[in-house]
Design brief:
- The longest helix has 20 residues, at 463-482.
- This protein has a single domain, classed as FAD/NAD(P)-binding domain (3-Layer(bba) Sandwich), CATH 3.50.50.
- Strands 1, 2, 8, 9, 10, 11 and 21 form a seven-stranded mixed sheet that branches.
- The protein is built from eleven helices and 21 strands.
- With 572 residues, the chain is an alpha+beta fold.
- The mean pLDDT is 96.
- The structure holds flavin-adenine dinucleotide and iron/sulfur cluster (SF4).
- Flavin-adenine dinucleotide binds at residues 11-12, 14-17, 34-37, 85-89, 92-94, 96-100, 229-230, 261-263, 296-298, 301, 354, 387, 500-501, 533-534, 544-546, 549.
- The site of flavin-adenine dinucleotide (FAD) has 42 residues, from helix 1, strand 2, strand 9, helix 7 and helix 11.
């Protein structure tokens, strides 16, 4: 067994891990990043092969080698998920993500208190474990700004220090500075969406993206090639951590990345984490010993690694004296309404594919929920039918309207007519946390290394969520009709399984009895162990999570450099 020593070891070098690698190595700490996948380069993303990157999901974990299983409830048998929404290589999910980069709202950080203040405690479902974050939007604001400038985010501010700005998101919390780059170009679906939303008295805007709209810090601006979500960017315009912050870590001279490193255990001596054990590409068994251990391999392995690292002192998983490990899993619930036009082209396959233009009127607590029977909300946006806009992605993701078959000449004619003449109005409804939505170790399914697969027990179809999704579907349909579409129809809802942006499992809190980490992502039980990523989110917001994951990574790095390093021990 090979053993090496370092100051900091980081498991998983994706959206969060790469930020920590850059910040800590720049601060003079010796950092080793352990990443199970390869380190690709911009040249590896050419050509944009839709079969390879979209259909076969080449940049994501291989579902046979790295299975994650799902069952709707504890009585059902779990089955492997067919699609995994996170990364598998240096840069993680940011290589192939849609790059929509939101700051959460101020009330997203205090959803429990804000709900009680406005509607009373009875508005929160009795079985929900909805909790406030132990940090506020105002505390995180400088770190959101840091993330936007370091990574490169394009957009338009809607609230500069309390001054509402027309054309930006007027519902956003106050920010000190505008985005570093202007919004991306508006395509025809954005034009139609904006006109429709304004007609309805709503407030549309260009969704912020971690895609550079102009040349920025030596990188080339977006060429609007259209093969974006599910693909790596062939010119490096998508601000993946591979092209934005990992080069900063490299330049520090203090960072070393080990690829093909499948981490399987956090080693500990009772009071401290002593390091990480991993299998190398040649199946070698290796250990890195470190003063600080950081876990950032996304939510499945944040929980799985801690469960696999149980000790006599922590028989239910390392750092799990609270018993909260693996609980409170959340995911977005997507609904879609199609708008197809007989009289015009929309060409929405062009440009970045994820949320193009959006509106925030029905998100968070931006509207009165009195009498609606549910709390929290959803972003609404215009997008493509699937996670990308090419012909295969559209064919796989676009359900034809009732009465049109999914095969044969009628289906061919439908696709030929509407591929370039449709837009999709989508939502991502916030799902409340529930303690019985969990990740644990699957007793039956193992991965390519013989480790038990992470198993999710989850079903979004709870009364609050069912009502929230039904409400937003009506809003989506209203916008689609106001766009002037000839045909408008709803896509069927998913059957209960976890949608994208899965969060929870190592929740952050202000009480060690009810949370796994404190406000600095530091384990309550083991002070030199930090757990970073959306697994720490106590609630989830109706916005995509990655900019918040990265802002919290900057906040955590700052706490390690300016607090922990000076006085190692509990930060709270
Ligand atoms: C198609 C798609 C589109 C998306 N679009 C958006 C979007 O538009 N906006 C948004 O905000 N979010 C989006 N997301 C979600 C986004 O990708 C994730 O939120 C984000 O990448 C999570 O960051 P992370 O650092 O926690 O994990 P990742 O970025 O996934 O990084 C984790 C890394 O850890 C590695 N790893 C895992 N286990 C181990 C192990 N045991 N040992 C060693 N290494 C390990 C993985 O290989 C991976 O590289 C999208 C996701 C998908 C799949
Ligand atoms: S749409 Fe822009 S950011 Fe996306 S892959 Fe193409 S050039 Fe890159």
């Amino acid at each position: 067994m090979a053993i090496e020593k370092t100051d900091v070891v980081i498991v998983g070098v994706g959206a969060a891990g790469a930020v920590l690698a850059a910040e800590l190595s720049k601060a003079g700490m010796k950092v080793i990043g352990l990443e199970r996948g390869p380190r690709l380069t911009t040249a590896d993303f050419r050509p944009h092969d839709e079969l390879r990157f979209f259909q076969r999901q080449d940049l994501r974990p291989n579902v046979k080698r790295q299975p994650v299983t799902w069952r709707p409830n504890a009585k059902a048998r779990a089955v492997p998920l067919r699609n995994l929404s996170y990364g598998n290589g240096a840069g993680g999910g940011t290589i192939h993500y849609g790059a929509v980069s939101w700051r959460f709202h101020a009330d997203d950080f205090r959803a429990r208190s804000a709900t009680i203040e406005r509607y009373g405690a009875a508005a929160i479902p009795e079985d929900s474990s909805l909790a406030d974050w132990p940090l506020s939007h105002a505390e995180l604001e400088p770190f959101y700004e840091r993330a936007e400038y370091e990574i490169g985010v394009s957009g338009k501010a809607g609230n500069l220090d309390g001054r509402k700005v027309e054309g930006g998101n007027v519902f956003e919390a106050p920010r000190k500075r505008d985005y570093p780059l202007p919004p991306l170009q508006t395509d025809q679906s954005g034009v139609l969406f904006d006109e429709a939303a304004r007609k309805l008295g709503l407030h549309p805007f260009s969704a912020p993206h971690a895609i550079i709209s102009q040349d920025y810090r030596g990188r080339t601006g977006c060429t609007y090639c259209g093969f974006c979500q599910a693909f790596g960017c062939h010119v490096g315009a998508k601000s993946s951590t591979l092209v934005s912050v990992l080069p900063q870590a490299d330049a520090s001279g203090n960072f070393r990345l080990i690829t093909g490193a499948m981490c399987y255990r956090v080693n500990s001596d009772g009071a401290r984490a002593t390091g990480i054990s991993y299998y190398g590409l040649d199946n070698s068994d290796n250990t890195i010993e470190a003063e600080i251990v950081i876990l950032s391999p996304f939510i499945y392995d944040n929980t799985r690694l801690l469960l696999l690292s149980r000790t006599d002192k922590f028989p239910n998983g390392l750092a799990n004296s609270s018993g909260q490990l693996g609980k409170h899993i959340m995911a977005h619930i997507g609904a879609k309404v199609y708008a197809a036009f007989d009289s015009r082209y929309v060409n929405n396959y062009m440009g970045p594919n994820a949320q193009k233009h959006a509106l925030d009127d029905f998100n968070a607590d931006n509207y009165d929920h009195g009498g609606l029977g549910f709390i929290r909300g959803s972003q609404v946006a215009v997008a493509t039918a699937n996670t990308e806009g090419g012909p295969i992605g559209t064919a796989m993701g676009m359900e034809p309207p009732h009465g049109t078959p999914r095969w044969g000449a009628a289906y061919r004619d439908f696709m030929a007519r509407y591929f370039a003449r449709h837009a999709v109005v989508i939502s991502e409804t916030e799902n409340l946390p529930y303690a019985d939505h969990t990740i644990d170790l699957d007793p039956d399914v193992r991965d390519a290394w013989g480790l038990p697969a992470p198993r999710i027990t989850y079903d979004w179809r709870r009364p609050n969520e069912i009502k929230g999704v039904a409400f937003i579907q009506d809003k989506l349909e209203g916008v689609a009709r106001a766009m002037g579409a000839t045909h408008v129809w709803r896509a069927p809802l998913s059957g209960g399984g976890p949608g994208p942006h899965t969060q929870g499992g190592t929740r952050m809190g202000s009480d060690p009895k009810t949370s796994v980490v404190n406000r600095y992502s530091q384990s309550w039980d083991i002070p030199n162990l930090f757990i970073v990523g959306s697994s720490t989110h106590p609630s989830m917001s109706g916005f995509n999570p990655t900019l918040t994951i990265q802002a919290v990574a900057y906040w955590t790095a700052d706490a390690i450099v300016n607090k922990y390093k000076k006085s190692p021990g509990p930060l709270v």
